[in-house]
Design a protein that fits this description.
Mean pLDDT: 90
Number of helices: 1
Structural class: mainly beta
Low-confidence stretches: none
Number of strands: 11
Distance between the termini: 29 Å
Helix content: under 10%
Largest sheet: 5 strands, antiparallel
Length: 124
């Protein structure tokens, strides 16, 4: 994981990390098949009280998706379902999420939490 991640939280089988407005990670390719990016996260109700919830994802500097999150709860982002990621040995993934929010008695600034970020083989 790169910048922007808070400590690991949750119980076995449901681990996650909160992010603020920005977080990054580096993924390494392990298969030769064309790759796609999959992210699983959670949008908290407090975020929706602050405005429209939007998550944007860039891979190796190129925007691959910008998704509006429509409801509180679990969300899945599959970066551009119509195209594979360009071939690379490593992928720098940047996640931007707005709006941010704070909780009473907590000095962190939150947007969404992320429980999975991985490369998956594209379906042929």
């Amino acid at each position: 994981l790169g910048d922007g991640w808070y400590d690991l939280e949750g119980d076995f089988g449901n681990k996650y990390r909160w992010i603020g407005a920005h977080a990054s990670a580096v993924l390494r390719r392990i298969h030769t098949a064309p790759q796609r990016l999959r992210i699983r996260g959670y949008a908290h109700e407090t975020q929706f009280a602050k405005g429209q919830t939007v998550v944007e994802v860039r891979v190796n500097g190129t925007r691959v998706t910008r998704q509006t999150i429509e409801r509180v709860g679990l969300f899945i982002i599959e970066a551009d379902l119509e195209a594979d990621l360009p071939a690379a040995e490593t992928y720098t993934v940047e996640i931007d999420a707005l709006p941010t929010w704070t909780a009473p008695d907590d000095d962190r600034t939150f947007s969404v939490n992320i429980s999975m970020i991985r490369l998956v083989d594209a379906e042929i």
